[in-house]
Design a protein that fits this description.
Helices cover about 80% and strands about 0% of the residues. The protein is mostly helical. It has 2 domains: about 190 residues, no CATH class; about 70 residues. Helix 8 runs parallel beside helix 10. The chain starts with a helix and ends with a helix. The mean pLDDT is about 80.
Length: about 260
């Protein structure tokens, strides 16, 4: 492929990624950002600050934590640590997504830049669509989707900032809650490995119980303890059962040959 043909191909996949703006994950996220605009307005955050948060912090839960700690009067260091710890949860998403789209010619700086656009919606969308995109076009495809989604949501927050003042608080809350609901459904639907679904079930059961037993540490314990329990169960119960099932026919064949 000549350089000119390669540029045309990359442009085509970038535009294809931009069209992902009309997909269900992107539409649900945009509706959720309308709820974020209402939350920002009610919290005393200005229109410019809300738009800046959307473009730079990006992940919706991290922005909610940022505004919540700001309005509670926390100091700058506490706010920084809270948002940082919230964003660490995205590292496994980046670690699983980058190998799916990286090629030998992909520069590291580009992958670092695109990692900013990795959040729940972008990860679910990309992992579900990459199977239909050749590896050479995946970086451009993800860039088209991620950059467009961030830009549109930034503009959306600015436009809706004044409009949502007439929304009842319950409506704004429901709009914001659409994203986690969709994420929960998508995790189950796109989980390719059994350990993912085991971890999902453990988290769904242990999360509410730990919230009552040890509030404040429930997410940490559910994540670390539940993830470890899911891994052990998957490795020593599910995979052990699969190995025994595969070796059993071979043993039967050998016994028949001996007879």
């Amino acid at each position: 492929m000549t350089p000119a043909e390669r540029d045309v191909s990359q442009s085509r996949w970038f535009l294809a990624g931009m069209r992902g703006l009309f997909s269900l994950p992107a539409i649900i996220l945009m509706i959720s950002f309308v709820g974020f605009a209402a939350f920002a307005l009610q919290s005393g955050v200005t229109r410019g600050e809300a738009m800046f948060m959307t473009a730079t912090v990006w992940a919706l839960p991290a922005k909610m934590i940022l505004i919540g700690t700001m309005t509670s009067g926390a100091n700058l260091l506490a706010i920084f640590l809270a948002v940082t710890l919230s964003s660490i949860r995205l590292m496994p998403m980046v670690a699983s997504l980058v190998p799916e789209m990286r090629t030998s010619r992909t520069p590291t700086w580009l992958l670092l830049l695109l990692s900013h656009f990795v959040a729940i919606t972008a990860w679910v969308f990309a992992m579900g669509r990459f199977k239909d995109v050749p590896r050479e076009g995946r970086v451009a495809y993800f860039a088209g989707f991620g950059i467009t989604l961030v830009a549109i949501n930034t503009i959306l927050v600015g436009v809706c900032y004044g409009v949502v003042s007439s929304f009842p608080p319950i409506v704004a809350g429901l709009l914001f809650f659409l994203t986690p609901v969709y994420f929960i459904a998508s995790i189950w639907a796109t989980g390719r490995q059994s350990v993912v679904k085991v971890a999902f079930i453990v988290g769904a059961v242990s999360g509410p119980l730990l919230a009552v037993v040890m509030p404040g540490f429930d997410i940490l314990v559910a994540g670390l303890g539940g993830g470890t329990l899911a891994y052990l169960f998957d490795r020593f119960v599910i995979r052990a059962g699969m190995r025994s099932t595969k070796t059993e026919p071979a043993a039967v064949v050998q016994a028949e040959e001996v007879v």
